[in-house]
Amino acid sequence: MMRTYWEIFLTALKLGLTSFGGPAAHLGYFREEYVHKKKWLDDRSYADLIALCQFLPGPASSQAGIAIGSIKGGKFGGFLAWLGFTAPSVMVLALFSFVINTTDIDLEGFIHALKLVAVAVVAIAVWGMAKSLADTKVKAGIAIFSCAAVALVPSAMIQLAVIALSGAVGLFLFKDHEKRAVAKNSTLTGQSGFLWLLLFFLLLGIFPLWNHLSGSVEAAMADVFYRAGSLVFGGGHVVLPILEKEVVPAGWVTSGQFYAGYGAAQAVPGPLFTFAAYLGAAASGINGVLIATAAIFLPSFLLIYGTLPYWERLRGNKAFQSVLTGVNASVTGILLAALYNPLWTSTVKSTLDFSLALILFLLLAIWKLPSWLVVLAAGAAGLYF
Question: So where does this one cross the membrane (predicted)?
């Protein structure tokens, strides 16, 4: 089992060091590593997990990693998958918080090139998922309509509504499809799932009470960051304005420091929720880093550990598989919308950008070069141009 744990951690650590570009890009990197290379799950199972994480509040890519690690190695495997994926950006952002005013090196070109890598990664993921999950006229139609709806009205609520509607359409249109076998995860039981979900809701009341009675910075941080990780749909970009309203008036950081950290969080690999490490470092040093990071990600663990057992049971039901067929097609369309906005619209600004993105697509999709090598090559090109 120890060998499995090491494999989970090292695989996630590689992703944590190379996964630039935000949640949509992370899901593309995850698919390449966990589905294609490691073959820990297939495309359908992966899309099922994405659909689950889209329904839950919090960082979807981190939750997907926790779920995959849990399926491979139980609860501890889920923790190791999160640790490997999250630790690099936590350390970088915490360090950046301590030395924010000590350097004036211009890395704009380097950062922009890494975003171009993300464009190529997401394009590969969309193409691969479309071939397996939107491979009929009806499924392709669901994917395209989902993409159009989310692109026209880019909000978390619309995204949830599109997924729910696609599931209803799937139940009606795909009810005669043959039931498919799914792998079971015996490490997470339904009984334990209820307890994890109960703890999730209890902590929503315990942390504010602790904050009220204690009045310490640490208690306030636990309260603020746990609520942010529990009640925000739509990922890291959505949580940022909510955190600003909490941490800037409290005097933990100035408005300028807040947005400097926000820029840094977009430049590093890994989940954008690690922005909490930057804020925690500014507010209370190393203790702040640990408290803020643990508090904002704790809801993800509780929700995944709580829902995954029931999710797998539902996946084995024929009617629910029909629902998932529609949902999976919808997820493909939603990922396509993310490829356009924010990735394409904020990254591909010129013919040079388009050409570099196309070359990066060639290196990753056709020539199959290692992603870390492509990231380094793109960064060098960004600095040069």
Answer: 79-100, 112-130, 142-174, 194-213, 225-243, 264-283, 289-311, 323-344, 356-384
Domain segments of the chain: what residues? Answer: 1-385
Cα–Cα nearest to 276, from 11, 1, 62:
62
* Residue whose structure tokens are 């339904």: 190
Tokens at residue 329, please? Answer: 């097609």
Tell me what pLDDT residue 288 has. 92
Other Cβ atoms within 10 Å of 106 Cβ, number: 9
Q: Can you spell out the DSSP letters for 123-143?
A: HHHHHHHHHHHS-SHHHHHHH
Q: How far apart are CA 288 and CA 249, in angstroms?
A: 17
Question: What span, in angstroms and rounded, lies between the C-alpha atoms of 37 and 42?
Answer: 11
- State the Cα–Cα distance between residues 373 and 43, nearest whole angstrom: 25
Best CA proximity match to 278, nearest among 247, 234, 238, 250: 247
Q: Do residues 55 and 69 make contact, with C-beta atoms less than 8 angstroms apart? A: no
DSSP-derived letter for residue 184 is -
Q: Report the alpha-carbon distance of residue 301 to residue 207 in Å, rounded.
A: 17
The encoded tokens of residue 109 equal 């070109």
Tokens of 358: 């196309």
What CA–CA distance (Å, rounded) separates 169 from 166?
5
pLDDT per residue as tens digits for the range 9-68: 999 999 999 887 777 788 888 998 999 889 899 888 888 888 788 778 888 889 999 999
| SS3 state at 56 | coil
pLDDT in tens, 222-236: 999 999 898 775 555
Radius of gyration of the chain (CA): 20
Contacts of residue 35, defined as CB under 8 A and 6 or more positions apart, other chains included, come to 41, 42, 43, 46
Q: Tell me the C-alpha distance between 183 and 71, whole Å.
A: 9
Backbone angles phi, psi at 357, to 5 degrees: -60, -40
